[in-house]
Amino acid sequence: MDRAEGPAVDAETVWDVEEALLERRIRTWAIPSALALAALFAATGPGRFLLRVFLSMWVHEVGHAATAWLCGFPAFPGPWFTPVAQSRSGPFALLVFGAMAAGAALAWRSGRRGAFRALVALCTVQIFCSAMLPAPGARQLIYFMGDGGCLVLGALLMLTLYAPEGGALRRGWLRWGFLVIGAAAFVDAFGQWWAARTDVERIPFGMNEGRGLSDPSMLAETYGWSADQIVHRYVVLGCVCLVVLAAVYVAALRRER
């Protein structure tokens, strides 16, 4: 008599389940682990140098450039320095807005609602920064968003870990690289300004070799920001980014469980 056979197990289904479980375990520890490892590197002189030269410096300069673009100023991020135009350019601002609006339309047609909402929000910010924010205020924001970019962009890069299934970030290893870069940039900037609360020597006042005044010196000497204001604003921005990171992290854990 033949033995009764149970239901066949689809090998592809088993693989999908195992992959989902692995993804869940990795995402549980990925962001805390990346931040902890970056903090350990930053606690040593050589480690901090490596983090800054190869990772956070580029995020810092992109922070300057992206803020300039949103404010209508042509800019190009380079190593240790981002040249920014002396005045706004209307055609350039329209070009930036058109690119983001086209991206939003494409995201809507392809059903990527998260990307659509993010691009619409960026379009709104760009309209305000380029059309309503006075030029002196825009320049202060551009200087501030060097290390500010390390905090904001660093947090956003880490959050690419939660990219939706089926997207390019989820299919490849790109999000893991972004996680490392984002954690390094965030820890480098936030650690410096957190320490500056009690040690004013940690504020990088002075000259950048061959590039003029540093960002904090420009904010202090040209626009009248006090040392306390500079430190407080960076620390507050960093804490807000940490709260957002924690909220997304906890929400993702609860959703997966």
What does this 3D model show about the protein?
The protein has 257 residues and is mainly α. Helix content is 71%, strand content 2%. The protein is built from 10 helices and 2 strands, in the order H-H-H-H-H-H-H-H-E-E-H-H. The chain has a two-stranded antiparallel sheet. Strand 1 (207-208) and strand 2 form a beta hairpin. Helix 1 packs parallel to helix 8 (174-195) and helix 2 (45-70) runs antiparallel to helix 5. The protein is globular and about 65 Å long. The termini are far apart. The mean pLDDT is 89.
Question: Which terms summarize this structure?
Answer:
257 residues, two-stranded antiparallel sheet
Give me the secondary-structure topology:
Elements: H1 11-42, H2 45-70, H3 90-109, H4 113-131, H5 135-144, H6 147-159, H7 168-171, H8 174-195, E1 207-208, E2 212-213, H9 215-221, H10 227-256
Antiparallel strand pairs: 1-2
